[in-house]
Amino acid sequence: MSLAQQFAAYAEWRSQLGGNLENLRAWLAENELNDAQSDLRLTRLAERLREDRLHVAFVAEFSRGKSELINAIFFADYGNRMLPSSAGRTTMCPTELMYDESKPPCVELLPIETRAKNAGVSEYKRFPEEWKCVPLDVESAEAMQETLRHVSEVTRVSPEAAENLGFAVDEDSLESFHIGDDGLVEIPRWRHAIINFPHPLLKQGLVILDTPGLNAIGTEPELTLSLLPNAHAVLFILSADTGVTQSDLAIWREHVGAPEGRKKGRLVVLNKIDGQWDELKTEAEIEAEIARQAANCAAILELPPSQVFPVSAQKGLVAKINADTALLARSRLPDLERALSEELIPAKQEIVRDNTESEFNELGMRTRGLLESRLAGLREQLSELTELRGKNKGVVEYMMGKVRTEKEEFEAGLQRYYAVRSIFSTLTNKLFAHLGLDTLRSLTQSTREAMLEAAFSKNLSDAMANFFGVTRDSLAKSKGEVEEIHKMMNAIYRKFSVEHGLKLGTPASFSLLRYEKELDRLEGWCNTHLNTMFQLVRHDKQHLTQKFFEEVALQVRRAFEHANRHTEGWLKAIMAPMETQVREHQIQLKRRLESIKRIHQATDTLEDRISELSHVETALVSQIQALEKLAWAIRQSLESQVDIRDQMVVNL
User: Fold this and answer.
1) Neighbours of 548 (CB within 10 A)
2) For the whole model, what pTM was predicted?
């Protein structure tokens, strides 16, 4: 089974899980067991599954056969090269291949001049008018090839203009630029490209990121701060005829590799091994030469040899198109695909599974608790009414008084609940005072002023360090408020469970650890690329300030935006079970009292009421069984997996 087939199996798993969640949402609505929050959460879960993306980044210097490798791994079934692949530079700007059904097939191109403004590519994605859109004729291979050549376009500008756009035209990088007799330098015409193409894999959520060389990576901070770190797999491509060049090593050390060696989802590809297929050498000699090259690359990159995959992308593509199994095996492409599957599909499935499971478990537990609370209240009513059989009016009055007393005690206990709501609101306000975006905006403004007013390099450095120090302190204080809220809700859950028999379980937990780690990563990047003596001396404060806020502060803001959304969801999730159970218990107590009143006033016969409640009991038991059946189907979907070891899809 090819990687494309395995990815299709993963997409089918995701679709099945989404369908089961939709069945649960529809059943809850049909049985009037949903509320606005539950319905919204299930709808969002289903939408996230439908819109789920699997990001694979290909990183290499020019002329390493990167585009051919993308064609060979993902698009051989198309029967032709989707991406242009020829000698020289075929991709000049970072390019995303994906599919958005709301748009027609096209190539969207962001002009390189947008680099002069303080906005990242993701910001420009909100403004389609800033992009040049070229229609993509998917019915014609020739027309498609012609349209895709736009990603190879260049423009010529003065060295000063190139410098302003982020291209450092200095002695160390002159060989990367084509400088004409007129003194103009050649730079990419486009800053970023998005190819919207209705290929089956792209329709299923695959997103391929093609990054063209050190110049593009080094000058587009979103690649190193966001796109590459968030990719589920990164393939770093070398050429067998050059090995690890100086520029390859620079990309690996600065943007791809990890100091500790192996990094999850990072694979090194030694491409173009067909250049070693010499008819004057034996097969063993050829294999030994390829093994030596792979070992040498592994040593330079400080990796175990098992992480370097020698392949011939061109021969692998030809073999797939011509169904030549012998050539495919010799290209070694299946070995790379197998390794990519082992890194990519299980890791992505685990992320989706964990995110879905935590949401589903909380919703399922809440709904089950609600039904069990109704059933317990109903059975208590049945027990009380059954005991009234053959009893005189005085016993009925006593029972009515007992339920009334219980109702009054619960309503008195509600004062504690209302007090908790008030404290909860106060703690929530304190939490968002630390975590909220208003606080971050204020810090951003004061940091900008401090950097622009800085008289010395040390002042600039201190301002950047202070920015991270304050944001880290805000997260630490937010963490304390989260712990305080959880501790309080845990205590009130237990108290109401013991005193009033509410089925509340344990309040949902929450952690800000992922955002602490994100701050660590961003500060590390800043200390490597901006807050260094070399950068502080080389660039003026205006330039450094612009780069800090365009590249670093923007990513910190996004991290805080995500933290705010997740925190708001948790606060709703932790309070909702309490609100639901309290409301349900009030309703049950009221019904019990009304039921005994009707018996006492002889407006309803005892046996009729017992029979009516028995029917309701049967219906509730059936609802619990139906809920269990739906939950079982979802759990089965969550537990099933795409088994790449045997290259087949199995259900555990």
Assistant:
1) 21
2) 0.71
